[in-house]
Specification:
The protein has one domain: lipopolysaccharide transport protein A fold (Sandwich). Helices cover about 5% and strands about 55% of the residues. Strands 1, 2, 3, 4, 5, 6, 7, 8, 9 and 10 form a ten-stranded antiparallel sheet that branches.
């Protein structure tokens, strides 16, 4: 589903530290704030009201941990707590977000809600493959995937 993929890929597109992007095709600086931050070896951890902002894109979480490779690229990023990503057009919420640079995937888990305008999808987890654009929704145990979609004429922008 392209609308879901677009929102998720903007969250961590081009995950290299030197050319990291949080907003699609942006060279604007990335502003990360939190109540505390600690750095040791190749791990950076922000906790408490964490906000990552680049232009109109915002990722909020209770905790964000980034592992940086020897080459200076993010090898993985984990956001936990009340995770919310928004770019002004799409939004995705869940309890955990995991970016895996080696697998080239972004997964949002636990009570996932994806919205674009009036369109809504809910699932237990959603995984996005960065290089192929494939998106896979998985239900929570004992539940089903749900989507509410409106025809173009019915949606108000």
């Amino acid at each position: 589903m392209r609308i879901i993929a677009l929102g998720i890929i903007m969250a961590f597109a081009a995950a290299g530290a030197a050319n990291a992007q949080f907003a699609a095709e942006s060279d604007a600086p990335i502003d990360i704030t939190g109540d505390t931050a600690e750095f040791q070896d190749n791990i950076a951890i922000w906790t408490g009201n964490v906000r990552v902002v680049q232009e109109d894109s915002i990722l909020a979480a209770d905790r964000l941990e980034a592992n940086v490779s020897e080459e200076g690229e993010f090898s993985s990023i984990t956001a936990t707590g009340s995770v919310r990503y928004s770019n002004g057009k799409e939004a995705i919420t869940g309890k955990r977000l995991f970016f895996d640079n080696e697998a080239r995937t972004i997964t949002v888990m636990e009570n996932v809600i994806v919205t674009q305008g009036k369109q809504i999808m809910s699932a237990g987890a959603v995984t996005f493959w960065i290089d192929t654009g494939m998106v896979k929704f998985k239900p929570a145990a004992g539940q089903r995937i749900r989507g509410i979609f409106y025809a173009d004429g019915d949606e108000q922008t």
